[in-house]
Automatic annotation (TrEMBL):
One of its GO terms (molecular function) is isomerase activity. It comes from the Bacteria. SUPFAM superfamilies: SIS domain. CDD domains: SIS_PHI. Belongs to the SIS family. PHI subfamily. Keywords: Isomerase. This is 3-hexulose-6-phosphate isomerase. Residues 35-184 form the SIS domain. InterPro entries: PHI/rmpB, SIS_dom, SIS_dom_sf.
Length: 197
């Protein structure tokens, strides 16, 4: 194996970890607490996202299911209809994803709560949301020179990687907070893990 590539890869890993550490300190704790409270007060939880952000939201849905909550991924064949006491959570860096805006509008018309995890509080989704978690990062088309709302966020990573990573980590932090509130351990959660694999 080429030793040069190993050194280069490790240097990049260190840069990513440094970015994540710095960006995590910019996330408002009260916004994460608001997300956790909204999840606990919701009748049912629906999650949505597109592309890689959608994959992070699917991972969040899986962990919410492991907590014993009733959760659905929008677009799956087994997803139920959204109702008044439910919560729709959307992950979108831009807050303008064309397939997600109508979902938020429909949820509002059904009197469900809408929460958005985004880079862009002033986006269409941000304005439609009842509450929001603003994540640091760079828009996917400006990753190496981005200026978002507030201080400039520069990343060595391509496209929306920093946002997507923070989306997953912020959601995992909320899961840990919910575990604390419900006095659940990972061992207890394992009872809800898929067993037909």
């Amino acid at each position: 194996m080429n030793m040069v590539s190993n050194v280069s890869s490790h240097r990049h890993l260190a840069a990513i970890m440094s970015e994540l550490d710095q960006a995590a300190n910019e996330i408002a704790a009260e916004q994460l607490d608001q997300l956790a409270a909204a999840i606990l007060s919701a009748g049912r939880i629906f999650v949505a996202g597109a592309g890689r952000s959608g994959l992070m939201m699917r991972a969040f849905a899986m962990r919410l299911m492991h907590l014993g909550l009733e959760v659905y991924v929008v677009g799956e064949t087994v997803t139920r209809s959204l109702g008044k006491d439910d919560l729709l959570l959307i992950g979108s860096g831009s807050g303008e994803t064309r397939s997600l805006v109508p979902m938020a509008e429909k949820a509002r018309s059904l009197e469900a709560a809408v929460g958005v995890l985004t880079l862009s509080p002033d986006s269409t989704l941000g304005r439609l949301a009842d509450f929001m978690v603003k994540l640091p990062g760079a828009p996917k088309d400006q990753a190496d020179k981005a200026e978002t709302n507030g201080p400039a966020t520069v990343t060595v990573q391509p496209m929306g990687s920093l946002f997507e990573q923070l989306l997953l980590l912020a959601c995992d932090a909320v899961i840990l907070a919910l575990m604390d509130k419900q006095e659940l351990s990972g061992h207890k959660m394992y009872g809800n893990h898929a067993n037909l694999e």
